[in-house]
Each structure stands twice: as structure tokens, then as C-alpha cells.
Amino acid sequence: MAPTKTILRALAGETLPTPPIWMMRQAGRYLPEYKATRAQAGDFLSLCYNPDLAAEVTLQPIRRYGFDAAILFADILLLPQALGADLWFVTGEGPRLSTVQIQADFDKLGPVEDIHETLNPIYETVRILRRELPAETTLIGFAGAPWTVATYMIAGQGTPDQAPAHALRQENTALFEALLARITAGTIDYLAAQIEAGAEVVKIFDSWAGSLKGEAFQKYALEPAREITAALKARYPHIPVIGFPREAGDNYIGFAKATGVDCVALDNSVSAAWAAQHVQVDGCVQGNLASSHMVTGGQALVDDTRAIVKALSKGPHIFNLGHGITPDADPDNVQRMIDTVRAG
Ligand code: 1CP
């Protein structure tokens, strides 16, 4: 049966008169209602593992703006925690994890089969959302890509250049590849469980793909995305997959064909015209408005939004930002972006 929800139609390759729209990090600190619910939960991880409150913050941007898709409220770092890493968040700084740098660290991780013990509340959030979302809203599940997740597990925190992960991949390739394989297997099971619970689309966030060059990109960004997509498609052929190899540059070309993903999410370092010519030829694209417009607003926001819609109007397109909205964004600018897209 052909899909009726706009996001699913675009993902199936249909060119719609108005692109459907959602926004990376649409549930987040720029919204006063998010901050209130987060305060109620206590801290960020307690919010992720509380199905009622996690569903509530997922629904907040749907109620406020009527986005065409909701994205499950969770985090890419829950999988490392489920694999046995320690995880905590330092206020004002970000995530911290126990590190995997030598074989003994790797040996302390648990088997993939055990991840669901930790992740069961996330699947419950998905089930609540499928009951509570409006009939026209698509539910997107997600996970981090193995390389991006590995960069946090190796360094124990976010890093500007992913240097510790690059060092490990060069100095102890066997350990690095064993870690990537463990994360890849865990990601397949995690996304499959989200689909079983009701996720209608899954997205693989490779936020740090851009720091892999040449052959390393093929081996550690493209190949894991292909493996995860193939495993999911074998079990769930009708569930679309969105790939996001952020800052991949020329490696965006051919990425959908090589991995089997149904849609490629674009950051804002590539132009929409270039993406129309080189990426959209293979199917649906998503993106690529600079998230800084959500802070600065004004005519530039309207002009860039219109330009992206126009440049990508001849093929399947889902409107989105090129990266997540930031906490200093103005909620009124989000409304302006949506109004501009929907006015055509
Ligand atoms: O204080 C808070 O409320 C925590 C801020 C926050 C939020 C709202 C974090 C910590 N994670 C999230 C939710 C989240 N993270 C979602 C779900 C909701 C949505 O999109 O609306 C998603 C999809 C993510 C994905 C995520 N987490 C990525 C990939 C996408 C991207 O932005 O590049 C990454 C790299 C993370 C790690 C992470 N989690 C949180 C922070 C601050 C970070 C970045 C850490 C760093 O590199 O310094």
C-alpha cells in the first residue's frame, strides 16, 4: 500500500508540492516547556529513561508547530551505556563516558544481547508516542552511527577533531575495529527494537563522518551504514532509513546508492543547488538550512528558506536544518521558517 503520511511519501521518492518539515533537536532547551519538563525529571538522563516524560517532550514541538515528523526523545549515547560504559552529563559541559582505549577496557563491555535491559524504557516511549501522535505525524527512531558513537566511547567526551579516535584507529586498528563491530551489532538490535515498538523511520546520525577521509570514510562511515541498513531492510523492507554523514562533502555523492539508505540528510556546508545535482538524483534528501538562522531570524532566514525549497523542488525533499537547533534559538524564528516553507 502506498504511504499517506507526507514524510513517508517523500521517503518513498515522491516529489511533493510542499516539502514536509521537521527539525533536528526539535525537542530541546530553546523551548520553555522542555525546560520545565526537564526540571521535573531532574536531569537529562532521567528524562531519557522516563517514558511518560520523554514522550511528553517529544510531543511538545508537535503541539506547538505541527511538524510532519516527531523524533523519539533519547540520545545516541544511551547505546554505549547499554553496552556497559559509564555515562553521565556534566552541567554546562556535556557528556562524559568511561573510555575504551586498551583491550582490558573493551573486555569490560557487555554482550549485545544485554542492551535491552537498559533500553526497554526507550521502547516504551516509542509505544506511547505511536498511541498519542496525530495520525498524520511520522515517528522517527534513531541511533548514532558506529564511528560517531566510537569517538565518544574512545575519548570519553565530545572532541573538536576526534583525535583520540583517530589515534586508536591508527595505533590499534584491531581493537578499534572490534569496538566498531560491537557498536554496529548493538545499533542493528537497538533500531530493530525501536521498529518493533512502532518507529516508522530510522535515522543514523554520523555527526563526525566529516573527519574521516578517503578510504577511512569508506571503511568506517559508509560500510557500517551499509551493514546496518542491509540488516534492517532484510527484516523490515518497508521501513525507510535516513543516513546523515555530516560534513561528508564529496562523499555525499553516491552515498545513498552505496549504503541503501532511502534519504540522505545534508548539513549546511553544501549548497542546495549542488545537492540537487549530485545527491537528489539518487532519491530523497533532507536539510539544509543553517541552524544559526533560528537565532538570528530576519529576512535572511526567509530568503535562505525559500532558496532551499526552490533548489530542491524538482525531486523528493524533506525540509530540515543542516544540524540541530541550538538552545539560544528564538521559538518565533522556527514558526517563521515553517510558515515560509508552507506558504510555497
Ligand atoms: O541539557 C539537555 O537538555 C541535554 C541536551 C541534549 C538533548 C536535548 C543532549 C545531550 N541530547 C539531546 C537529545 C538528542 N540528542 C536527540 C533527540 C531529540 C531531538 O532531536 O529533538 C537526538 C536525535 C540527539 C542526537 C545526538 N546526541 C547527536 C547526533 C546529532 C548531532 O546533534 O550531531 C550527538 C552527537 C549527541 C551527543 C550529545 N548529547 C547531548 C549533547 C550536548 C551532545 C553533544 C556532545 C558534544 O559533542 O559535545
CATH topology: TIM Barrel
Given helix and strand content, the structural type is: alpha/beta
Count, helices: 16
Report the average pLDDT across residues.
98
Radius of gyration: 19 Å
Helix proportion range? 40-55%
Order of helices and strands: HHHHEHEEHHEHHHEHEHEHEHHEH
- Sum up the overall morphology in one term: globular
Give the N-to-C terminal Cα separation: 28 Å
**Small molecules held by this entry:** coproporphyrinogen I
CATH top level is: Alpha Beta
* Widest sheet, order of strands: 1-4-5-6-7-8-9
Strand content: 5-15%
Major beta sheet summary: 7 strands, parallel
The overall number of domains is 1
Supply database-style keywords.
single chain, TIM Barrel, 9 strands, alpha/beta, seven-stranded parallel β-sheet, binds coproporphyrinogen I, 50% helix, 344 residues
Write the layout of secondary structure elements.
Layout: H1 6-11, H2 32-41, H3 44-48, H4 51-65, E1 69-71, H5 78-82, E2 87-90, E3 94-97, H6 103-107, H7 115-132, E4 138-144, H8 146-155, H9 163-171, H10 173-197, E5 201-206, H11 214-235, E6 241-245, H12 255-259, E7 263-265, H13 272-278, E8 284-289, H14 293-296, H15 298-311, E9 317-321, H16 331-343
Parallel strand pairs: 1-4, 4-5, 5-6, 6-7, 7-8, 8-9
Antiparallel strand pairs: 2-3
Helix pairs in contact: 2-4, 4-7, 7-10, 8-9, 8-10, 9-10, 10-11, 15-16
This protein binds coproporphyrinogen I.
Give an overview in words.
The chain has 344 residues and is of the alpha/beta class. It has a single domain, classed as TIM Barrel (Alpha-Beta Barrel). It is built from 16 helices and 9 strands. Helix 7 packs parallel to helix 10 and helix 8 packs across helix 9 (163-171). The radius of gyration is 19 Å and the shape is globular. The structure holds coproporphyrinogen I. Coproporphyrinogen I binds next to strand 3. The site of coproporphyrinogen I has 21 residues, from strand 3.
